[in-house]
Amino acid sequence: MQTANVAPPGAPEPWRDPEAEPYVRIIGVTKRYGATVAVDDVSLDIYRGELFCLLGGSGSGKTTLLRMLAGFERPDQGRILIDGQDVAAVPPYARPVNMMFQSYALFPHMTVAQNVAFGLRMEGLPRAEIAARVGAMLDLVRLTGLERRRPHELSGGQRQRVALARSLVKRPKLLLLDEPLGALDKSLREQTQFELVNIQERTGITFIMVTHDQEEAMTMATRLAVMHHGYLAQVGTPAEVYEYPQTRLVAEFLGTANVFEGIVTKAGATGALVESTEFDAVFESDTDPPKPVGARVFVAVRPEKMRVRKAAEGERAGTNRLVGAVRDIAYYGDFFMFVVDLPDGRSVRVSQPNLARVTELPITWGDRVAVDWPPLATVVLPE
Ligand code: ADP
Ligand code: MG
Question: 341 and 304 in one domain?
Answer without folding.
Answer: yes
